[in-house]
Amino acid sequence: MTRQISGVLPIAHTPFLEDNSIDFESLRRQVDWGFEVGAEGFCTGMVSELLRLTYDERVSLTNALGEMVGDRGVFIAGVGAESTKQAIQYAQHAEKAGAAAVMAIPPLATRTPPGAVRDYFTELAENVNLPVIVQDASGYVGQPIPLEVSVGLLRRFGKDKIFFKPEATPIGPNLSALRDATDGEARIFDGSGGICLVDCARRGVAGTMPGMEFLPAVVALWKALQRKDEAAIYRLSFPICALVSLQLQAGLDGFLAIEKYVLHRNGLFKTDVRRQPYAWSLDPETRSELDRLLVKLDEAVESVKTSASS
Amino acid sequence: MTRQISGVLPIAHTPFLEDNSIDFESLRRQVDWGFEVGAEGFCTGMVSELLRLTYDERVSLTNALGEMVGDRGVFIAGVGAESTKQAIQYAQHAEKAGAAAVMAIPPLATRTPPGAVRDYFTELAENVNLPVIVQDASGYVGQPIPLEVSVGLLRRFGKDKIFFKPEATPIGPNLSALRDATDGEARIFDGSGGICLVDCARRGVAGTMPGMEFLPAVVALWKALQRKDEAAIYRLSFPICALVSLQLQAGLDGFLAIEKYVLHRNGLFKTDVRRQPYAWSLDPETRSELDRLLVKLDEAVESVKTSASS
Amino acid sequence: MTRQISGVLPIAHTPFLEDNSIDFESLRRQVDWGFEVGAEGFCTGMVSELLRLTYDERVSLTNALGEMVGDRGVFIAGVGAESTKQAIQYAQHAEKAGAAAVMAIPPLATRTPPGAVRDYFTELAENVNLPVIVQDASGYVGQPIPLEVSVGLLRRFGKDKIFFKPEATPIGPNLSALRDATDGEARIFDGSGGICLVDCARRGVAGTMPGMEFLPAVVALWKALQRKDEAAIYRLSFPICALVSLQLQAGLDGFLAIEKYVLHRNGLFKTDVRRQPYAWSLDPETRSELDRLLVKLDEAVESVKTSASS
Amino acid sequence: MTRQISGVLPIAHTPFLEDNSIDFESLRRQVDWGFEVGAEGFCTGMVSELLRLTYDERVSLTNALGEMVGDRGVFIAGVGAESTKQAIQYAQHAEKAGAAAVMAIPPLATRTPPGAVRDYFTELAENVNLPVIVQDASGYVGQPIPLEVSVGLLRRFGKDKIFFKPEATPIGPNLSALRDATDGEARIFDGSGGICLVDCARRGVAGTMPGMEFLPAVVALWKALQRKDEAAIYRLSFPICALVSLQLQAGLDGFLAIEKYVLHRNGLFKTDVRRQPYAWSLDPETRSELDRLLVKLDEAVESVKTSASS
Known about the structure:
4 copies of one chain form a homotetramer. By secondary structure, chain A is of the alpha/beta class. Chain A is about 50% helix and about 10% strand. In chain A, helix 1 (about 25-35) runs parallel beside helix 2, helix 9 (about 230-250) packs across helix 10 (about 250-265) and helix 9 packs antiparallel against helix 11. The mean pLDDT of chain A is about 95. Chains in contact: A-B, A-C, B-D, C-D.
């Protein structure tokens, strides 16, 4: 890969039509808008509703994103699965579809011992010609990946093959532990949705993989962090933090409900349809608070733009 | 369907060759042996390693079992999935493959509220022309299904469309609660692997869905229960109980490790390969105890046969 | 009680000397400072390290707080326990010590069915002459309390005897569900530490029970909410939200580590000793980010004061 | 201690009068009967309802058992608690009450990291002049104790100070791992209630700590295991296994409900009162199956006695 995997790499959401099929037109609108706004590429992951797609849909989504991203940035495909064989199948398909890397969580239904987790990632890494991002999503789903497994994978395959997205709570201290145990070699991505981005960025991350719903603010925050603009950092991170707190409470479906609401309201998605069954829907009072917070977020983005350009 | 869904309906295990592909020859041997031994049909489920198969393999397995079972009994396909759309896709395919019923657990990765669980089963029932077996596997995986959801489904679709396989612990009392809340209408299957079969049978079940590994003993126990042969009941259930206790401790992978070991040792399966990653492997001391218990189980089956024929 | 139970009612933390005994001098300093800053009273709860105190210490703490609070406000004692008998013992002692109310979570070690939870609170309410605050702490510990149990308790004992502190996630929608199911009669307290206070206050709460560590900001936020000063509301709630996010990640011990750090740094507590074993300690990088956020919080409090007085 | 800690060391249950106070008369009857039947001593633990006793009751129970056991055997006090200080307090009291050892689980409400678990047991061991039994009850409550923590404690304090009761599932393989990692030095006790006793005994245990309810059968099984009487081993273990399976399904309260039922029916306990709230009560159908199994258990004990004496 010549193209660098870094910066703001949002997780694409999967738009659906009213008949519950993937809305590829909205998908393209999302990708175009993402690049306009400053994304360096796109990923698929839990908030792409990957687990709820049929096999054919997952394949189509990967193909479509590979093509839509094209030369504009990198595409990173989520390939985590219940078995190594499934994960390899997804990864090899992603490679053909033009992905720059694959990202995987361990199986969800089984709590596997450290050796089995290591073997899962080892086989995956050996069977795909792309970097593998080892994702610990245990903050909201699945089991934590032991530090020694992460370190062992890096030692075996090298820092250009194995990257990390640690989301076990507390994220910051876990990130530092991984950084220090690998003498700073580990290439780490933030996956907190933005709520820990400031803390994680100060500890050292190569990029962040937020959802799409607050993308302009996350891009602005990322830039503020790069130029160490402390005032802008908190001006932007505070409303992001409040918004993600609201999502976080309802788990994965809290994120999905709010992202679909926002992308539909923004006109990027034709509908806010989510794949059923889900655990949570937006109630009117949460929506009202969300609307108020989104106004604050826009104000923050505007004010930082103004002061940056002045 | 004219054929009755009842009696001993084991869950088929999925044999693999050393190259990790499905071994259809061993699969057929398993099915033939099952019918010889007294099975009334075959199911697929968690112990078929369904979650760890690729999509293509899952489709092939369903097609193969539909064909192999043929007219000899009923075939019940496990179709539980992470989304309603996936479950319906699996169910409609199973229908084409000749299944007599489908069986589904709710999604595993999301803890969905009662209304969403109800809608999931409702949509599934409406989109397939087969009975739906509502499976609560929360004793070892996933979330419990609230009693009112089960009762509501039966009331809406009728007792010939909605069956139940309750495995929430404690199984017996939950089974009685479901039986009583439906005035005895609910058609209920035991899925305890045999460890609670005596208790469940006394409470009233239409059949049992054990693994294959102790099938002759489970068939003998089922017959003893039908003819109320109290001595034979405990002669058989005691070693089954000890064996399942041993499996149960290591969760789903405890069952898988032991079933593959037994079926390979019996010559039905060419290998004892399981799909990786898994949580547990058989250690030598557990295997030795297992071997001793299997001898006791065979003795029990023999002694009951002898006394029944004398 | 003639004194109203409402407003900002912080949970007192338990200061320890280096020898691990309770530091009553620091405790008094905390209480005095709390009233100066605007507290309407004090509670004890999980963040008082109640579970980790010996029985004698728990009794002493209750006695001391009853005396220290005196006529300056209300004292609400946490009395949740593993059995009804224990909870009643704690509650009757609290009554003697001058408490205005007691607050209880259900047992932690046992997942009890709805009927048993109802009986637990019923017996508690019948055996103490004080209002009982039904606390659902399932957002971070223990099991959720079913809505029908909460409603049933209110119907049976009336709105002046049974209050609520719902902390099951998502807090806001659960709070509204309880409010609506009781036709607005339920007297509800926010226990989110401040992270959901804005959303909860808009849904209608009688008060909030934060920790002590950000008390001046929470008091200022509460006042801003009362006077509907939208600018001040977000000026204050944003840094609170960022701070609580940081704590929340490490669970109960995240709160304890940061509160002890802050109260020791503020000079209120002689030490930052916590009762062992605990799950988490403050690492240097988290502490640095915490320090930066505390500066932002102070600025927010100051700016709101200035604009309010101007 | 000159007296050996080994053999069958049942956990005493706490009998209550109808007014919910401890029934010391029944307690003494239980102890007397236990020694008659072949116990080598008594323990207190989870099935003593320790967590649900008030502090005064817990102290009284320890005093009473110390006195009642006297010179007839050893008394081992359960001292696990939510903080190290509490555990030390219980342990020092147990020492005064004549205990021969103390047994502790880690805190239940907090999931503590390995270092904190190690420190908890280290401080406990340093503050009591008795052997400490490190109990991992994670099979039904609390968190597992990492193997390296167990090994480290043994290495530091020696095999006469640190013993083990591993109940993490699967028990057998975990027991062997501990045995092998300590080169066979670890003194290990079975705490499976009897369901894994055969497997555990073959792997090497110093004793077993069952409940009281099937004590004569467990003593007979222990003796059969000592004399390697294979026929008697399974004759006895099979009905025990079936009975414990029945209890196990309803967790800790499954054990408590059945033990109190049996001890009351046997005339040892005046009532079957348990301390509330609890998760489960014996339903009529489970009780009927229990009664049938108890007959089978008695037959097994009788038949082994007869064949042993013939």
